[in-house]
């Protein structure tokens, strides 16, 4: 059974907070050790804590720790910070992703509304006379975007269909607009 998602919030109870810190600190060190072993990389960690004096480092071997730290510090700052993340940058990244998803959803919803309105007008459920100028402009622009696709589809149908089946598609010009009519 999967665990429920952990709520990322400050733990108010001091004893529970210290206990959680101690457990997670050990888990972090174990995960880092596994990562180094499985992927063949060199890594280190520095942990500052208000619960213990000083700082705690991993690996405990001072020379291995110094080698990894020196390799990191000798890199250019731009290269060092390339993949670095903190809570602020993480939150900003998540917000920008969410905003992008919202914008995509707005466009999708807007297109769906236009398609729905177009189908209602074509089926006779909604009269064009009852629409305001904004809706009419939306329908006109939507039809303008779809017209090349429709014309391409008609070309394909005309080239694939026998001549006896083509009598039902007619193209006429009304008020300067190219309109397609289908005869039954």
From TrEMBL:
Cited PROSITE patterns: MADS_BOX_2 (PS50066)
| Main location as per UniProt | nucleus
Localization:
Nucleus
**Sorted UniProt keywords:** DNA-binding, Nucleus, Transcription, Transcription regulation
Q: Which GO MF terms are attached to this record?
A: DNA-binding transcription factor activity, RNA polymerase II-specific; protein dimerization activity; RNA polymerase II cis-regulatory region sequence-specific DNA binding
Q: Where is the MADS-box domain positioned along the sequence?
A: 1-50
Cellular compartments per GO CC: nucleus
Per the record, the coiled-coil ranges are none
Enumerate the Gene Ontology biological process terms.
positive regulation of transcription by RNA polymerase II; regulation of transcription by RNA polymerase II
Q: What is this protein called?
A: Putative transcription factor, MADS-box
In the record, what lineage is assigned to the organism producing the protein? Eukaryota, Viridiplantae, Streptophyta, Embryophyta, Tracheophyta
């Amino acid at each position: 059974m999967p665990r429920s998602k952990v709520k990322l919030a400050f733990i108010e109870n001091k004893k529970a907070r210290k206990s959680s810190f101690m457990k997670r600190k050990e888990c972090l060190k174990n995960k880092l050790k596994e990562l180094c072993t499985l992927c063949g990389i060199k890594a280190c960690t520095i942990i500052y804590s208000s619960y213990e004096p000083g700082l705690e480092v991993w690996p405990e071997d001072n020379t291995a720790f110094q080698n990894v730290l020196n390799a990191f510090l000798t890199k250019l700052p731009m290269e060092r910070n390339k993949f670095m993340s903190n809570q602020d940058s993480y939150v900003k990244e998540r917000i920008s992703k969410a905003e992008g998803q919202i914008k995509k959803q707005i466009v999708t919803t807007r297109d769906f509304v236009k398609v729905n309105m177009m189908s209602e007008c074509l089926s006779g459920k909604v009269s064009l006379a009852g629409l305001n100028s904004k809706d009419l402009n939306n329908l006109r622009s939507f039809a303008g975007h779809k017209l090349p696709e429709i014309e391409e589809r008609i070309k394909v149908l005309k080239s694939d269909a026998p001549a006896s089946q083509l009598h039902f598609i007619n193209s006429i010009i009304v008020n300067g607009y190219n309109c397609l009519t289908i005869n039954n």
